[in-house]
Design brief:
With 219 residues, the protein is of the alpha/beta class. It has a single domain (2-185), classed as HUPs (Rossmann fold, 3-Layer(aba) Sandwich), CATH 3.40.50.620. It has 9 helices and 8 strands. It has helices at residues 15-27, 52-63, 74-77, 84-94, 106-109, 118-124, 143-154, 187-195, 206-215, and strands at residues 2-8, 32-37, 69-71, 99-105, 126-130, 161-162, 166-169, 172-178. Strands 3-2-1-4-5-8-7-6 form an 8-stranded mixed β-sheet, with helices on both faces. Helix 1 links the parallel strand 1 (2-8) and strand 2. Helix 2 packs antiparallel against helix 9. The protein binds adenosine-5'-triphosphate (ATP). Adenosine-5'-triphosphate binds next to helix 1, strand 4, helix 5 and helix 8.
Length: 219
């Protein structure tokens, strides 16, 4: 049984996240994709976020009734910043016989060498990198080439074995690039649109849009 862990700020969750979660779940036959909102994301240097309780609630609303999707508040219950290594260890303890895959966008993967204990993470779990629409990436290079150059900076380039699915190396369980339907939606853009008084209808589930309106978030 493999569980996919998909972390992020989810401020707010949108269809880019949700569609990616569904497609990765299907492509890898995952038992479940667990969306995990971060408490204080160590990599996001921006100011105020919506309260954690609202970000969690919006994910709950978004995945309600969706087969194969779940939400975990494990990072919100931990004190201090959320580190993926702690979350991985938590799920390893919960599912001793299970396998864990970490799902992340190429933008997140490109910064993996800034993550706490990233070598331990790469050794312990399979990583699935989802490709995002072009303007978040280096337009001249494929997602696979970007992933390879990130890995080459961490391991020596000769140590990396390229397979049809992705990459392996000593100390690297596996990294696979998974193309998903390109939905050029970001939480930043959603927050900007709300701030500008524009509609975000059809960028996120209706229940999420309704929650944002009811709570006056991002206005
Ligand atoms: P922000 O604009 O606030 O930075 P975001 O929309 O990038 O937010 P995050 O919560 O930071 O959302 O994203 C969580 C994960 O989902 C990251 O790994 C990110 O790369 C990925 N992701 C976000 N939006 C998309 C999208 N439209 N398509 C595919 N993956 C996405």
């Amino acid at each position: 049984m493999t569980i996919g862990l998909f972390g992020g700020t989810f401020d707010p969750i949108h269809f880019g996240h949700l569609r990616s979660a569904v497609e990765v779940g299907e492509a890898f036959g995952l038992e479940q994709v667990v969306l995990i909102p971060a408490a204080v994301p160590p990599h996001k240097g921006r100011g105020a976020m919506a309260p954690a309780a609202d970000r969690l609630r919006m994910i709950e609303l978004a995945v309600a009734g969706a087969p194969g999707l779940a939400v975990s508040d494990v990072e919100l219950r931990r004190a201090g910043p959320s580190y993926t290594i702690d979350t991985v260890r938590h799920f390893q303890d919960q599912l001793p016989a299970g396998d864990i895959a970490l799902i992340m966008g190429l933008d997140a993967f490109s910064e993996i060498d800034t993550w706490k204990f990233y070598r331990e993470i790469l050794a312990a779990v399979a990583v699935i990198v989802i490709s995002r629409p072009a303007h978040h990436q280096d337009p001249g290079r494929s997602a696979r080439a970007r992933v390879e150059s990130v890995l080459a900076a961490v391991f020596s380039p000769e140590a990396i074995e390229a397979t049809t699915e992705g990459f392996r190396a000593e100390g690297l369980k596996s990294v696979t690039v998974q193309p998903v339907t390109a939905l050029d939606i970001s939480s930043t853009r959603i927050r900007q649109m709300i701030g500008a008084g524009r509609s975000i209808r059809y960028l996120a589930p209706a229940a999420v849009v309704a929650h944002i309106q009811a709570k006056g978030l991002y206005a």
